[in-house]
Amino acid sequence: MRTSEHSNSSISDVTKEPDLQEAKLVTEVGFDQENAKVTIDDLDERKTVRYIDIRILPILAATYAFSLIDRINLSSAFVSGMAIDLKLQVGNRYSIIAVLYFVPFILFQIPANAILRRVGVRNWLSFIVIAWGAVQLAMGFVKHWGWLVLCRVLIGCFEAGFGPAMVFIISTWYKRHEVHKRLALFYLSSGMISGFSPVLSYALSLLNGKQNITGWSWIFIIEGAITLALGILVYFFIPDFPDKNTFLTKAQTTFVLLRVEEDRGDSIPDGITTRKVFHHLGDWTIWIYGIMLACSTLPAYMLTFFLPIILRGMNFTTAQSLLLSSPQLGFAFLSAMFFAWISDRSKHRATFIAIQSLLTLIGCSMTAFAESTAARYAGTFFATAGAMGCIPSILAWGANNVVSHSKRSVQSAVTVAGSGVGGIIASTVFRQQDSPEYIPGLWVTIGAQILCIGLALMMSLRFYRVNRLCREGRLVGPLEGRVGFFYTT
């Protein structure tokens, strides 16, 4: 008996006729099919892919790094004098400033991704980078905590379009099981750079009194100016989608598109309409990725927002707290790249997500409940490695299991919006009155890791079952509307 159980497939016809789609691909890039194949055969696949890596990943990683720095430098400014000058120790003012950033960050994810192709990658991304850089710089001149709230809300509005765009763009360039290593390299490189934000902030805080400007104000002014400069570089160097790129030859472009076509059948984009957006939102699996990402970004935001404050509670000095907040990223980078490599190689995601969530759980438990300062500090390494590694793992898993540009746009936006939810939770459960140990917040973080492990295993079993039913011919229609497509478990 045939069953109707399957994931919602795309309502566009972009993925339904692979042969027609491949012919359309060759027509779109202006190649005769036979000549294209001859030219493509002469290309070195590894060399071409490496060239794409070099052209795409560094500029995206550098820009995303400063989006993270501009997002998380509140804690450094807090311990550098902002708390006293703006009276942020009154009530929950600091938590309010931290949490309100995420409201527009969540709300504008899908609209921003929906207009990305229409406006153009270069125009859209350079605009939002310059916009939030200007607001970041302006934060150095606020005199009241209410204006700081407004600035954080504006930064949330502009940064909302950046994260999902990065995932969307990167996932369109590579085969499904090449994506995890690239996302991990992109995200961890950004994280490594942004991980030195406390060190940079400490150095900038030493400018205290220069030009009659406080040290914490210099943090926002200098880092905002750097972001503005990056926004200009983005305009000239940011890559577009594969079918619209200008840095590859026609033969290389055709080669890239045919690789994607053979892998998942969505090399040529379909139009994004309101009807399609709501249709794709009906696929419950993309919401699970968002929940899992919220569980992983909760400890990541906890560490970036509150780690210097937690270290102060371990009786480290302000300088030591800032300087000791960065070494964890080196260990996290090695751990995450190992899991990305083995995950792509095995074409499997769920088990490695569960393992990294378990690392986070162990690390948070050590930081919360260990008696010695050394053990508590060691726990921050495990928590950072697990959380930072889980994020690209979940992003890659979501990108692997959708077909068509319209659904990819919605999926990446919904998933990255989950990171905003994680930020809201982190900003609210780590309360000022629980400083500096933040035990209730650490309990919530531990619970989130248990939830993430459970969801990963549930999704893996679900995809395994659906793949089996499809191979046995017991489903109505191919998975995601693409013949030969199977979900990554």
TrEMBL record:
The keyword GTP-binding does not apply. It comes from the Eukaryota. Pfam families: MFS_1. The keyword Transmembrane applies. Keywords: Membrane, Transmembrane, Transmembrane helix, Transport. GO terms for cellular component: membrane. It is found in: Membrane. Its main location: membrane. It is a multi-pass membrane protein. GO terms for molecular function: transmembrane transporter activity. The chain crosses the membrane at residues 56-74, 94-116, 123-141, 147-171, 183-204, 216-238, 286-310, 322-343, 350-370, 376-398, 410-430, 442-464. InterPro entries: MFS (IPR011701), MFS_dom (IPR020846), MFS_trans_sf (IPR036259). Residues 56-471 form the Major facilitator superfamily (MFS) profile domain. This is Major facilitator superfamily (MFS) profile domain-containing protein. It comes from Marasmius oreades.
